[in-house]
Amino acid sequence: MTVALIATASFAQKANQDMKYRRSSLYTIMVPSDKLTGDAKTIVTNTFDTLAIPDKYNDHNLAIRHIDLTKIAVTPDEVKAADEMVGGQKKGLAGLAKKGLGFAKKNISTSETGGMTGDEKIAKIIKFFEQNKIANKIIGKWYNESQTMKDNSYFNTLLIEERGLFGASQEELNKYRGVIGGMNKIMDAAEKDLIPRTFVMVTSYAYMSAEEIAAMSAAAGAVVGGAIGGVAQLTSVAAGALLKGYFVTTTSYLFQLEWNEDVMLGFYDKYWNAKDTKAFDTDASYKLTYVGKTSCHAPATMKLTTNDDASAKLISRATARATDKSIAQLQKKYDQFKTLTVLNISDDGETMYAYVGKKEGVKAGDKFEALEQIQDEAGNITYKKVGTVKVAKGKVWDNRHGAGEVLEGEAIDDDDDDDDDPNLEYTIFEGKPSKALADGGLWLRQMK
């Protein structure tokens, strides 16, 4: 048994790994691109359909999990509206065609955007949301919409209670049950906190060669100072030296439910005791707003062959890892999408660690805020920063799909830190805990 494993067994947490907090909720949808065909398309699709929502989010998936954007027509005005919604966050790859970047221009038009401009793609996703009343369905799931009336309503708050009331102690619940409107205060706090933090991630998947990824990455670095999935600002030749084979690539678009107190009160006033749910189901006022996007890749196979068991396993693993990368990068870019994790302290008080790792995009040197959770008697939760911790070099936990499993024929992606201890079962932070952190019971939130 290794030293690392012995240390793991001896650690007694001063903070419980299962500490509760109100998680954001996530719904994921897949868009296959025209670069994803045949066996690769089947493998990627099957993997997506069976991927679990990360445990730091509530699973808010609906029955609709796939979008075929080629069947959605948008007008110039709708594309213009998407352009205005995106604003300063574009244009990234969609604008590269104007730069005359040769190989990159050719491949960007058929991979990242599937032959569409970035604005057109976003416009089509928004139109899909509107046509299918996705925002209404998300709200309906929150309120357990039913076709059977109970207690004069087709809705109830059981899911909100399940996801949100653990923030109130039993003592508080007992106290407020005897006060008129008391329980409503705690319910209102949970409701106002949880529902606005509902997100939809729409991800376009493709199967691409290293040459294509390298060219796109170099173009992105040259035009917008960015990169594709962690390949830094390099020339096509330099980037190509780091990548060999075929990769699963993702472009993920993040949207957030528009929900505030006025919208909530309007929902109760119009629909809670309505004679049926028809008006609610077709209400066009409920919306999802665009947050931003990111692009990633994960190594699949060295050869184009996809119809053997080994290749299928590699492509499936790459699909899961590229999806995780998308979520991790969106968390780093957008504060409202970030999650929390528990700061643990070893029994001897010498080591700080957490159950996050490479799956969440953690790297040596990354910094996390240490937060104290504060809840008032009405059930409102806030977080107070009490310190900062930094990930130690060589101490990042590899918790990615298929970690530790060596598969023959995997594509080459020189993106890993080879110094990381493969036996770790958590990520370790530098130094000893300060006085402010030593007692535990704190949360961590990754900084940009």
Note down, in words, how this protein is organized.
The longest helix has 25 residues, at 309-333. A hairpin with a 6-residue loop joins strand 7 (341-345) and strand 8 (352-354). The protein has helices spanning 3-10, 38-50, 76-86, 103-108, 118-131, 134-142, 158-164, 170-177, 182-194, 210-224, 236-242, 261-271, 278-281, 309-333; strands at residues 25-32, 58-59, 198-209, 243-244, 246-257, 288-299, 341-345, 352-354, 367-375, 381-390, 412-413, 427-428, 442-446. It contains 14 helices and 13 strands. By secondary structure, the chain is α+β, with helices and mostly antiparallel strands.
In short, what is this structure?
The chain is an alpha+beta fold. The chain is built from 14 helices and 13 strands. The radius of gyration is 23 Å and the shape is globular.
Key descriptive features of the protein:
single chain, 448 residues, alpha+beta, 6-stranded antiparallel sheet, 5-stranded mixed sheet, disordered N terminus
Radius of gyration: 23 Å
Taking all residues together, what is the mean pLDDT? 83
Shape summary: globular
Biggest sheet descriptor: 6 strands, antiparallel
Kindly state the number of beta strands: 13
Q: Structural class of the helix and strand makeup? A: alpha+beta
- Strand arrangement in the largest pleated sheet: 10-9-13-7-8-12
- How much of the polypeptide forms β-strand, as a percent range? 15-25%
